[in-house]
Amino acid sequence: MSPLNIEKGSTSHSAYNLRSAYGDAVERHTLAVLVENEPGVLARVIGLFSGRGYNIESLTVAEVDHQGHRSRITIVTSGTPQIIEQIKAQLGRIVAVHEVHDLTVEGRAVERELGLFKVTGEGDKRIEALRLAEIFRANVVDSTLSSFIFEVTGTPEKIDAFADLMRPLGLVEVARTGVAALSRGQS
Predict the structure, then answer these.
(1) CA distances from 74 to 38, 45, 91, 187 (A)
(2) Chain-centre distance for alpha carbon 113
(3) What is the four-CA torsion angle of 150, 74, 38, 84, rounded to 10 degrees?
(4) What is the pLDDT of residues 141-158, one digit of tens each?
(5) CA angle 161–105–74, rounded 5-degree value
């Protein structure tokens, strides 16, 4: 079977189904992309991913230079080393893109995410939710007689762990910001 043939029974035809055929490991990368803050730029960046079947695990965008009208897009994606290099090269060819940084390979980076969690419950479940929130250094940002909204900031793994522990205690809704990241040290 040719490496480009998709396995029988596969329902998805994205670039990720080809990875095992080449034997390359899939890696998670955090990309920081500095772009012009103008209409359509985000759509072009997202179109690059969707048009080629690449997945975006997390996406955050905000203006970081008001005078220069520049925004920073932080994208967390996964792929083989070849796919990641291809993504970076294609991002760099978009006219409104000024810089593309792969924070994963440029050295250590600090990644943080904000999560809001609505947890309902009474009695022991309510007490346990507050106890766990204290361990995770979560803030109570809203409280009623039957629910809490907790705010947690940390790594994506910390946010996942908090959600996993809150599910049996009455987790009913989650909102996450996506990853914000900066490389450590001087750049």
Answers:
(1) 17, 11, 12, 17
(2) 8
(3) -150
(4) 999 999 999 999 999 999
(5) 60
Mean pLDDT of the chain: 88
Tokens (6 digits) for 61: 């965008």
Q: Cα torsion for 10, 13, 14, 18, to the nearest 10°?
A: 60
16 secondary structure, DSSP code = G
* Interval 124-135: pLDDT, tens: 999 999 999 999
Distance CA 65, CA 144 (A): 39
Q: Please report which helix (H) or strand (E) contains residue 88, including its range.
A: helix 81-92
Domains of the chain: 15-102 (3.30.70.260), 109-183 (3.30.70.1150)
pTM strictly above 0.90 = no
Strand locations in 41-170, DSSP E? 56-65, 70-79, 97-102, 109-120, 139-143, 147-154
Among 16-20, 46-50, 67-71, 100-104, the minimum mean pLDDT is found in 16-20
Q: What token pair was written down for 167? A: 């599910």
